[in-house]
Specification:
The chain has nine helices and 14 strands. By secondary structure, the chain is an alpha/beta fold. The protein has a seven-stranded mixed sheet with strand order 10-9-8-11-12-13-14. The protein has a five-stranded parallel sheet with strand order 1-4-5-6-7, with helices on both faces. The chain has a two-stranded antiparallel sheet with strand order 2-3.
Length: 356
């Protein structure tokens, strides 16, 4: 039987195994309990899901983020979503604070755009709506055939700067590379600060100089008349790391969307200290902090690393006491509440620029 236009479906909140602390925070703020679900792995490492309450005709919100165990996180989300679909749930909304594989959103030589595969799988599994935060590339929203709410963490990070960084008026926002200038500018304008840009020899993921066979000679040796079409180009050489902007005697705040491999951040912090910055902060939405990242950060010249709780990092905090956490559960809670009540989402994007 169809619902009356003004009638709302009951809401069910389900959580995977990726981030139980965030799931509990959201449930507490909504004033409801988490749904009864059991997600576990069999001895052969297959994922098994048991939903122990009815979801028929209900709006189901599945909370699952990307962690270091990313492939299990994805399979859990897909299986829970499909279980809800086959149990006749009315709507299935995925609350995915950090979207896995979002860094692989561009073609890499003979690779593939893996994030597009992710988007297709999530749509086919039964999800009808997605709530996420600070996608690595905003164009990723176009990979999905379902609505995607890309929330921003910048208001929480800016609030942290204003409340907890002494003398922040003497700070300068630093873009770690030229690709981050727009984000840095957006932060600087709202904090009324200047910006500096790091330029130089940092290696990017898409610069792989290994021979991949594309320049190999053809199998059949055929003599062709040599035609000069393009002028010879010299190989690109980057200058040493350099700071464009004055950071002397200032607090340097490096902003980015995620911090995972920290080698680049450590090198940038050393350059900033050499140029006279007396404190270096790193602020990012997603604190993945894989592998040896906590140890490297603890030993580095970075004074503080500020990340949100989109990804669990309690173990990393025990290894590195410089890591501070900003809680963004209130933003996710409000997004869920507004979607459930069919309210506009524009309030959550007040005073937020497109470049965040």
């Amino acid at each position: 039987m169809a619902l009356d236009p003004g009638q709302k479906c009951p809401m069910v909140l389900l959580a995977g195994n990726s981030h139980p602390e965030l799931s509990q925070l959201i449930a507490q703020r909504l004033g409801i309990r988490l749904g009864d679900i059991n997600v576990y792995h069999k001895t052969n490492r297959e994922t098994n899901v048991e939903i122990k309450e009815s979801v028929r005709g209900k709006d189901v919100y599945i909370i699952q983020t990307g962690t270091k165990d990313v492939n299990n996180d994805i399979m859990e989300l897909l299986i829970v979503s499909y279980a809800c679909k086959t149990s006749c749930a009315h709507n299935i909304i995925g609350v995915i604070p950090y979207l896995p594989y979002s860094k692989q959103s561009k073609m890499r030589k003979r690779g593939s755009v893996v994030c597009k595969v992710m988007a297709t799988m999530l749509g086919k599994s039964g999800l009808t709506h997605i709530i996420t935060m600070d996608l690595h590339q905003k164009e990723i929203q176009g990979f999905f055939d379902i609505p995607v709410e890309n929330l921003r963490a910048s208001p929480f990070l800016i609030d942290y700067v204003e409340r907890l960084i002494p003398d922040y008026r003497n700070a300068i926002i630093v873009a770690r590379n030229p690709n981050s200038v727009k984000r840095a500018t957006s932060y600087a304008e709202r904090l009324r600060l200047g910006i500096a840009v790091i330029h130089g020899e940092e290696k990017y993921d898409d610069e792989d100089k290994e021979d991949d066979g594309r320049n190999s000679p053809p199998l059949c040796r055929v003599e062709y008349k040599k035609i000069e079409i393009l002028p010879a180009l010299l190989p690109k050489e980057k200058p040493p790391l350099n700071v464009v902007g004055d950071v002397g005697g200032r607090i340097a705040i490096i902003v980015d969307d995620m911090i995972d491999d920290v080698d680049a951040f450590v090198k940038v912090a050393e350059v900033l200290k050499e140029r006279g910055a007396y404190k270096v902060y790193v602020m990012a939405t997603h604190g993945l902090l894989s592998s040896e990242a906590p140890r490297l950060l603890e030993e580095s010249s970075i004074d503080e690393i500020v990340v949100t709780n989109t990804v669990p990092h309690e173990i990393q905090k025990m290894q590195c006491h410089k890591i501070k956490t900003v809680d963004i559960s209130i933003m996710l809670t409000e997004a869920i509440r507004r979607i459930q009540n069919n309210e506009s989402m524009s309030y959550l994007f007040r005073n937020i620029g497109l470049d965040d």
